[in-house]
Design a protein that fits this description.
The protein is built from 18 helices and 24 strands. The protein is an alpha+beta fold and about 700 residues long. The protein has 4 domains: about 1-165, Thiol:disulfide interchange protein DsbD, N-terminal domain (Immunoglobulin-like), CATH 2.60.40; about 190-280, Sandwich (Immunoglobulin-like); about 290-560, no CATH class; about 575-685, Glutaredoxin (3-Layer(aba) Sandwich), CATH 3.40.30. The strands form 5 sheets. Strands 11, 12, 13, 14, 15, 16, 17, 18 and 19 form a 9-stranded mixed sheet that branches. A 5-stranded mixed sheet has the order 20-22-21-23-24, with helices on one face. A 4-stranded antiparallel sheet has the order 1-2-8-5, covered by helices on one side. The model is unreliable at about 1-30, about 280-290, about 400-410 and about 565-570 (pLDDT under 50).
Amino acid sequence: MIGLRFGLMTLLLAVLALTGLPVAAQTPGAGPHIRMELIPETVRPAPGQEVTLAFASVPEEGWHGYWQNPGDAGIPTAASWTLPDGVTAGDLRFPVPERLMIAGIMNYVYEGPYALLATLRVPEDAAPGMRLPVAVKLDYLVCTLEICVPESAELATELTVGNGAVPGDRRARFDEWRAALPRPLGAQGSYQVNGDAFRLEIPYPADAEAEDPYFFPITDGAIDYSAPQMVARDGDRLVIETGARGAPGAIEGVLAIDEHRGFVLTAVPGNVAPAPAGAAAGGERPFAWQTALLAFLGAVLGGLILNIMPCVFPILSLKALSLAKANAGEGNPRREALAYAAGVILVCLVLGGVLLGLRAAGASAGWGFQLMDPRVILLLLLLVVAIALNLAGLFEVAAPGFVNRAAAHGTGSSFATGALAAFVATPCTGPFMGAALGAALVLPWAAALAVFGGLGLGIALPFLLLGFVPALRRRLPKPGPWMGTLRRILSIPMFLTALALAWVLGRQAGVDGMTLGLSAALLAALALWWVGRRQQRGARRQWAPALPLLLLSLAAVAVVRPAPVEAEQALASGAEPFSEERLEELQREGRPVFAYFTADWCLTCKVNEKTVIETQGVRDALAAADVAVLVGDWTDGDPALGRFIERHNRAGVPLYLWYAPGVDEAHVLPQLLTQAMLRDLAARDAAS
């Protein structure tokens, strides 16, 4: 059908030319009417790496280009590549289009700036320094409301085989373009044709946002493009009714949920029940409070369990001494518990609000997003080093007065401790918490923020109980000389946390960044040692001489930058980097697949890897069952991985997926793995 339209339009343009009415003469100004620029995400792709190219397109005012299925009229953009030997190009990928009705004819178009994306694969044997000239000719149609003109754009760029580094500004620009691409829905739809009526059923959560949903068919010849689409929501499904044009078997299309977001799906013939009378129509969104309540309770339970996870446990040492003092009647336990809870809940709400805002702006951010920035890691490193040295007795927080009031054992200290615990806890998605936060990302804002608040409540719950239940406090040991020894012991997990943060900083900012961070930490330690010495001598203005050194160490935060992305990452033996293409290839081969998603700043991930995944027994079991292991490293917040993680109703890492042979859907494993769990799964699939 598209080919027929192209032929007819070409014939019409030829007739116009032969009759002495050249098309260019009928256009207000010479073309091209879509300004195009070919932009590679990196100009130094690594051997074997895929590099994304963008065709950044800006239509002239009053003109529009066409989607891959142009609708009732128009032709799609076609690309003819000229590539070096061994380099291959994938299909063009189109963002979610707009609807344009002209004289009863429906067009699927782009009237504003847009970008088509394509992926090139560099051969494995490409030598570093090799030049890869890339040329492409785009043939496309550009129209106004009155006239259409076929145009061509010949574009070229040159790549050089290198290390795959992506500049930060370029990465942000491509993230924005990728956010406009429709994402896989992860569920199959069905449709039914009755005469000239077409009814489509799409699985879609009742609480998920959908503003003016519309189905753009990729498969030609299925629906009447110009017929209106009647959309109704019936529980966890969308029902779309429109005019039928045919039943071409399985059809592919894009469900647009607003002007810029959509999901790719496939629908097969089947029986589709009509939506009940009175079902919410398109744009209206019923809200299931039951789902929000379950997500809230899951977040509370997940936050409670998070207290024993390695992400949070070291920070809890900051409260141990004050709890012991509260047992002796010192301070106000209830007020301290409320202040600690307020700090935790407030930070969870702020982080949740920022996360929702980023996602609304099109970013593929997930829970723990702030720890993807090496500047934040360095700031935490300096803070944790200071806390560890304080617990070790190197110095005391005793002056000046405003510091006393804010940080002495009391509500100020409790609030700050709670805020720090919540901030550091965010890399973890423990049991129950992952599904709850995944649900929060599709709930309305108020309900989503309630879920994030529930997470904070769960983290604070043990201290709230100790603060408000005297019987529980009486079970704590009485204060005594042992508290000095305990304080020194509690400095150990803080030093270990600092060591882990230094390692994460090295992974994010490279050796230079880690060296800068350790130098800043050493400078801060020297300043605090100086404070401690002055405190021992009873000197006045004990902090004044050290403040310049502390400020100088903090200046390193403004200097540290992410290291260039390395093309190859260190993976466990036998593992491969995750990509959806590789996953599909392994599934077609009938192999079982274990895919896990991790990040250097996720301590729970690292514990699972060292104690379970990378142990010799598990490796042998996976190898014996011919299980393919795919690793998705989300340390730098890769948006492609972020979108894949989101499709499994998770807001962050860790995420562990097991694909049995012949089964498309993944079995989501718990966030806390055991060796027996993986060995049993491998043995089961080996037997089958």
